[in-house]
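Working notes for the structural subgroup meeting. M.R. asked for a predicted model of this chain before we commit to crystallization trials. I am recording the input and output together here so anyone reviewing the notebook later can reproduce the run.

Input as submitted:
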Amino acid sequence: MEDVSAESASPKPMDKWYQNLDHAKEIRTKLHFYIQDVLSGDNPMVLKVAESQITITSPTAFGQISMLDDLLTAGPEPGSEVVGRAQGTISFAMAIQMGLNIVFTEGKYKGSTISILGRNPLVEKYRELAIVGGTGFFRMARGIVVSNTHSFDTSTNYGV
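Returned structure, recorded in token form:
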């Protein structure tokens, strides 16, 4: 199989890669990482960019839209090895709707992305979101993300 690096100079390498793709063979990859979610302080990574007329009075922040650019780390500690970024949008209703790109900046997946889309009901212990695509090593990715909250500090608004 051709190289699946995230960088291509033109569409031709992608066409060749796709033509040689063995459609019957799938590669299963299981990843485990942590998103460092900084909601306030000097350097917040989640920022509100829009809200509706009722957002401020809604118990669910209905109508709020936020952008995020969180660190993706190998461990739950804030100083853990950085492997990438979690970048995207969050829309608030009864549960949040997330459009998220996992961007790998280090290691063997450097330059590759995974695209995630779905409903993320934060009140549930485990949440499932759809993997709807990817680039580089994760071209044509599909699958699921199982997410849970490792920790959340209400005094600093810092979640993992």
